[in-house]
Amino acid sequence: MRSPTPASGPVPADRNRLDPNAEAEVSEGLPPGFGTGIPGRVAFWLAVVFSLFQLWAAAYGTLPSQIVRAMHVGFLLLLGFVLVGNLVARSRMGQAFYWALGLLGFSTGLYQWMEYVPLIRRTGFLNQTDLIMGTVLIVLVFEGARRLMGWPLAVIAGIFLAYCFFGQHLPAPFIHRGYGYDQIIEHFAFGTEGIYGSPIYVSSAYIFIFVVFAAFLERAGMLNLFNDFALGMVGHVRGGPAQVATLSSALMGTISGSGVANVVASGQFTIPMMKKSGFRPAFAGGVEATASMGGQIMPPVMGAVAFIMAETLNVPYARVVQAAVIPAILYFGVVFWMVWLQAGRDNLRGLPRESLPNPWHAVRDQWPLVLPLAALVYLLFAGYTPIFAGTMGLALVTVLILGTPLAAMIGPFAFRMVFWVALGVAAASFVEFGVNLLAIVIAGLMVACALLKGARPTLGIIRDALAQGARNALPVGMACAIVGIVIGTLTLTGIASTFIGAIIAVGQNNLFLSLLLTMLTCLVLGMGIPTIPNYIITSSLAGPALLELGVPLLVSHMFVFYFGIMADLTPPVALACFAAAPIAKSTGLKISMQAIRLAAAGFIIPFMAVYTPSLMLQDGGAIAEAWGYPVEVAFVLVKTVVGVGLWGVAVVGYLFGRTTLGERLLAMAAGVSMILALPNSDAIGFGLALAFLAAHGLRLRRA
Fold first, then answer.
1. How far apart are CA 247 and CA 253, in angstroms?
2. Torsion (CA) 277, 278, 282, 285 in degrees, nearest 10
3. Measured between alpha carbons, how far is residue 309 from residues 280, 318, 535 in Å?
4. pLDDT tens track for 227-253
5. Which residues contact 346 (CB under 8 A, 6 or more apart)?
6. DSSP class of residue 203?
7. Are 365 and 2 in contact (CB under 8 A)?
8. Residue 327: is the preceding peptide bond cis (ω within 30°)?
9. Is 116 left (phi over 0), alpha (psi -120 to 50) or beta?
10. 3-state secondary structure of 333
11. CA–CA separation, 149 vs 606, rounded Å?
């Protein structure tokens, strides 16, 4: 069996963990790497310990949830400030200052652990030490978020916190009754409605596990498999390099939770290939940014928002994924379609078939890499909790990595197969006998790798993946911590009801205007704020309002989730586009304009889902009552495909040949008619679509 490590072999551990330029990894606000010298080694091992603590807490769950949350935030502050000191500080004094902040932040987690029972007894009557530690926690979370995520999220959270202190002086309807300092500190720093609220619970319980899982798969060579498969499948079609970027980003989205990281990881390979094939730099960057951000709506991980959504709505995770499947396929279908049209307009062909790898040979040679991902999906849909499924998926990929060099040392093929079958049976027995047996299997493999000289580098891959997973989880975890300030303000003051009332007042007369207001809120909040905090804030504000207006609960949350993602493509911030800019050697604004064109049809899908919830496999309407639910889903899917397809033709100006202005307007009118949920609008849309096809075809035939 072929090793799942990349073709170049395992990355040397020392280079990977100490050299800041070792990899093109992304962690918002920080250069790559862990630092050099002894501080770099210490930071590296802190990241390993962070991962091991979280994995132990997930696998055995013996600690109370409040302690796990507090230690999670403590580790985030410790590792975050240590990395700032190692990678950003310009002097020894500056480095020592940030290390001190990290240790102080970690002490807040230890304080919650040691004082867990006394703090419960002192609820409502905090002592002076409690208030000091709570204040320190809040200040450090703000500073950590500013350092790791930039100013926008810290400023927004700061406005909400200031409202708690001074809102009693504002005019109606924003006035509140006023709160004491001790009440505010207790609410945000010790309860489960502030920093240690639902977002940080999801970060500690779900997100961290899946981020580490993705890091393990990347170390094992999954990115190479995705790239080879995408090249072989679509590299030869029209606009092949851009189609490869789209497909590889969709596949990468199944395991990665960061769209910006996807841009940097796969863009290094796809953007130069697109430019070499004739695509303009801005368009190449736009394709990569659009496809990479779309990876966040691709099940099963969905940028980690799926877990927060399931926890917030108190629905099974499988229901969230079920609602996301069709829109995710449509989103990437739109990008494929737009690339195909643009390539036709610019007369750009695909890559020569003989130069491309065979996609099925790539799968045949590296098929073991697919097994942990398949096991993860099976466990999630079989009803197991995301914590269990993620932990078991991570354990299985660890077994795969450790077992590969051992199997390579077994001579006869039959004996190797016996080894893999026995190992597979032992690993799969966790379903029947629990986590302990799987832990014993992993421990035995690690001992065997340590004893055998040729297998020892594999232990370095495991160690480096643990460290990299913790580092990748830093921005997400810190965003979840500081967004707890926003959620805590909403629960403490009730200000959300004011915003909800405004949306309901607009929507009672026009639902479309309420949706438009919600979309603009998501796009404005998304200027520099990652998808997870954007979703948490907007769903807390707009989700209940849309529910009051008759939008199904899951659809309303998907609506704000989608436009939270689109915010990373829209100017002036457009994080994904600016991440692609140095690779494409174009400006972030130009790339953003191209990304908006490519995703233009994708903006339609959330609106269509509101008016026809069956697009997200929710309750059916009149067609379902008359003809059955499958017929309605099929009709809505066909209508959506035709509508967004015509919208793309109108934007690009090409189908079988270049279109005239009149044809583009006709295609636009047909697409809009299919979006509107008005009487006879679908019939009008299909009629206009036929008229467009006839006019376009006849003109080209005469020409």
1. 10
2. -10
3. 38, 11, 9
4. 788 888 888 888 888 888 888 877 777
5. 278, 279
6. I
7. yes
8. no
9. alpha
10. helix
11. 27
